[in-house]
Write a structure and sequence with these properties.
Helix 1 crosses helix 12 and helix 3 packs across helix 11. The chain has 12 helices and 2 strands. The chain is mainly alpha-helical. The longest helix has about 35 residues.
Amino acid sequence: MNTSAQGNKFTVKPRSDFEKSLDKGFIWVTRILALAIAGILLWIAIEVGIESIPAIQKFGLFRFLSESNWNPVNNVYGVLPQVYGTLVSAFIGLLIAVPIGVGTAILLSENWLPLSIRTILVFLVELLAAIPSVVYGIWGIFVLIPLLTPLGRGLNSYFGLLPIFSTVPTGPSMFAAGIILSIMTLPIITAISRDTLISVPSSLRQAAVGLGATRWETIFKVVLPTAFSGIVSAVMLALGRAMGETMAVTMLIGNSNRISPSLFAPANTISSLLANQFAEASGLQVSALMYAALILFVLTLIVNVLAEFIVLRVKRL
């Protein structure tokens, strides 16, 4: 829109046909790109589904999800341990990352620290997301596992009767994978939660303070409830990232196709299974791996649908 001042009056010049054409063209380009993203997602799902048809026909859904044996020699495949490992390791990571991430977001969104220090901390948190996955895995092997091994042995000595501490740690484990996932998802939770907290209107804070609320009451009773939908979106996005993480988890989880309630026992995930076996797979094994990938695809889709449902439900309240 073009405006020109004449005295105290402003006149609006009509937009040219070229500008109108540009606007319409931009709208159509964005629509095409949005449809292209949806089309690519659907294309991936269809290709994976087609490749997994032989395994679907032979094992079905219930047998494939309930079978614990993965035996390429006898062509017997089941992903129950991998599904269990995928979900448990992701939830362990979130259990650690969510309180730390949201707490860090609150710290970085309030004026407790000077702006220069907050800027440096924001940069360092976001820098965690730029570290390659394999670097996290190497750090976990040489630093994290040696730290967790004596801790796990101590917990086993004192609380060995509890199922979660019933295994004496000897190296890679579910807990190590969960911790590395918490570190890797921390930047997602912190960055999105901080942006959501910053976007809360200052008028709400001022109104709460004007009514006599303390700073902590304002944060917990006004700011966090207002930003709850954005924080939930951050957590669900981090959950999807944790469920699909491959390299670091493969290096730290132990790749054992069995289910154990112990945190210090080795386990496996769907992503690790694909990374370890796809290069040398053939025949029905390829179809079974594609079937496992399709299940992981559905799990992540369910997570995102639940996130949207929760956000919409919160907005209505």
